[in-house]
Specification:
single chain; TIM Barrel; Beta-Lactamase; four-stranded parallel β-sheet; 8 helices; 9 strands; 36% helix; EAL domain-containing protein; Cyclic-di-GMP_PDE-like; EAL_sf; cyclic-guanylate-specific phosphodiesterase activity; EAL_dom
């Protein structure tokens, strides 16, 4: 099975009470894990609470081959000015929650909405790339013996589905709003623009009555 990196979150107090680099690196070496399989995520509050320790340990982590990410930037009171003094590999900005329906205001959500199939989809060079699907999406695909890769291939090969999804993505990015469309009287798509990097755009997509969509797909 493919091995992908995992993230380790560190708080300001981790930098204050110990040599956190040495603590993490000792565990990594004990289990013979390459440094590039661990991403070190720093809480935003660490930038202002322990700047000296943070500078020191970022240098050590980078020298040992780790990536350093700042987690959920913008959720607190840090400004972009705080970033110029640190060397981060990636800036994470919290924008959506895939444990619930991102199309609905949190105050109105119930636990039943966890069953909505959700996907993180990237648009790149006119093609659609599925980066993540939640458990409800996975369960629906599994009923039809489909993988995420199978579904991605179908979306890109089916001209109608691909054009519709690309148009919804364009409309959502242009308006910075969630955009919806009916495939028929039962199947309902919602697309919400999240972020861009160079020529790549990221969206979250929810599909209501997804099993009906899969049923139609299997008949095709």
């Amino acid at each position: 099975m493919p091995v992908v990196p995992v993230s380790v979150n560190l708080s300001p107090i981790d930098f204050q009470v110990a040599d956190i680099f040495q603590e993490v690196d000792n565990i990594r070496q004990k289990h013979k894990t390459p440094a590039y399989f661990l991403n070190i995520e720093i809480l935003e509050s660490t930038l202002t609470s322990v700047p000296q320790q943070l500078h020191r340990d970022i240098t050590k982590f980078h020298a040992a081959g780790y990536q350093i990410w700042i987690d959920d930037f913008g959720s607190g009171y840090s400004s972009l000015n705080n970033l110029k003094d640190f060397n981060f590999d990636l800036l994470k900005v919290g924008m959506t929650n895939l444990l619930s329906d991102p199309m609905i205001e949190p105050i109105s959500q119930g636990i039943k909405l966890l069953s909505v199939p959700l996907a993180l989809i990237e648009r790149r060079d006119g093609k659609i790339k599925y980066c993540f699907i939640n458990q409800a999406h996975h369960n629906s695909l599994e009923k039809f013996s489909l993988s995420m890769a199978d579904w991605e291939r179908f979306i890109n090969e089916d001209e109608y589905s691909r054009k519709l999804l690309l148009q919804l993505m364009t409309d959502s990015k242009t308006s910075n709003q969630r955009i919806s469309s009916h495939l028929d009287d039962q199947i309902y798509l919602e697309v919400k623009y999240l972020a861009s990097y160079q020529t790549r755009d990221m969206f979250v997509v929810s599909t209501k009555n997804f099993n009906n969509y899969l049923d139609k797909t299997s008949k095709k």
